[in-house]
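Support reply, case 0932

Customer input (verbatim):
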Amino acid sequence: NGVRYFGVFLLTAGSNANVPTALAYQANNIRGQWTRAFSSALFVGFAGMGGISGGTIFRSQDAPKYVPGVSAAIACNILIIVFVLGLSGYFARANRQAERGQRILEGSKKFRYTL
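Our regenerated output:
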């Protein structure tokens, strides 16, 4: 039981650590106070919808393995990884174009995306 408890601790720490990281990634790459505030609120709203859907995905009749719930959680995490990789590639390309003077990012010549 001690090993399982430690595994649950690691799982919870890993799944909760992504929220401040994602909020910082989002906030650092948006220019403008109101746009950043709206994006953060939208992010928190979608996180709330994820919490609501979690209550319907992890059903008691699927105990003890909860295959549909775990599968949905894994699929969502894979989707997040794909989005982060895609956005990081896009941001890196945009930063290179801005360094060469081919592009102005977020309406400012000095702005660069944070990777």
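We compared this against your earlier run and they match. Two observations from our side: The chain has a mean pLDDT of 89. The radius of gyration is 19 Å. Please reopen the case if you see a mismatch on your end.
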